[in-house]
């Protein structure tokens, strides 16, 4: 699997992170250390580290609630919680979920996203080896189909 970095054009970034190039995303004075990979999610959820130990993943950073510094994995803290929150939000969007929204520290998410993300963190994120892993998309999709209400 070939990995490429995804970066937003400077016109798509806010004033704080536009000067930082593609190495971080920023929300006000907070800087995320996670980097987004441009890999299809159907290839699996990619969790890697660069040479500085920053998280590389193909999960977009849509919302922040627990960790002002970004995604993490391999333990049950705030960085893994935000990674799980963003995976849940992305998956519910992909599955066409509709429901009430929940306000988060930065942004908002489906209320069901917020209800599911800690369970998802313990099932898929907290136990990942610090070196990284690829979580099969089929397993993630099946988990979500078991945990969201029928239409």
Approximate helicity band: 25-40%
Q: Which secondary-structure class do the elements indicate?
A: alpha+beta
Strand content: 15-25%
Name the strands of the widest sheet in spatial order.
3-5-4-8
Unreliably modeled segments: 1-29
Instruction: For the record, give the distance between the C-alpha atoms at the N and C termini, rounded to a whole number.
Output: 35 Å
Compute the average pLDDT.
82
Number of strands: 8
Sheet with most strands: 4 strands, mixed
The count of domains is: 1
Work out the radius of gyration: 15 Å
Number of helical runs?
3
Cα shape: globular
Element order: H for helix, E for strand:
EEEEEHEEHEH
Structural commentary:
With 151 residues, this protein is an alpha+beta fold. It is built from 3 helices and 8 strands, in the order E-E-E-E-E-H-E-E-H-E-H. Strands 3-5-4-8 form a 4-stranded mixed β-sheet. Strand 4 and strand 5 form a beta hairpin.
Keywords, separated by commas or semicolons:
3 helices, two-stranded antiparallel sheet, alpha+beta, 8 strands, globular, 17% strand, four-stranded mixed beta sheet, 151 residues
């Amino acid at each position: 699997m070939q990995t490429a970095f995804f970066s937003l054009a400077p016109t798509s970034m806010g004033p704080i992170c536009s000067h930082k190039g593609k190495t971080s995303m920023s929300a006000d004075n907070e800087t995320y250390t996670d980097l987004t990979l441009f890999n299809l999610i159907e290839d699996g959820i990619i969790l890697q580290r660069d040479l500085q130990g920053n998280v590389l993943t193909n999960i977009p950073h849509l919302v922040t609630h627990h960790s002002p510094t970004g995604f993490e994995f391999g333990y049950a803290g705030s960085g893994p919680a935000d990674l799980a929150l963003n995976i849940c939000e992305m998956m519910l969007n992909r599955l066409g979920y509709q429901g009430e929204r929940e306000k988060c520290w930065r942004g908002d998410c489906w209320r069901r996203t917020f209800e599911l993300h800690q369970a998802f963190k313990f099932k898929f994120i907290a136990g990942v080896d610090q070196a990284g892993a690829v979580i099969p998309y089929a397993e993630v999709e099946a988990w979500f189909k078991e945990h969201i209400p029928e239409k």
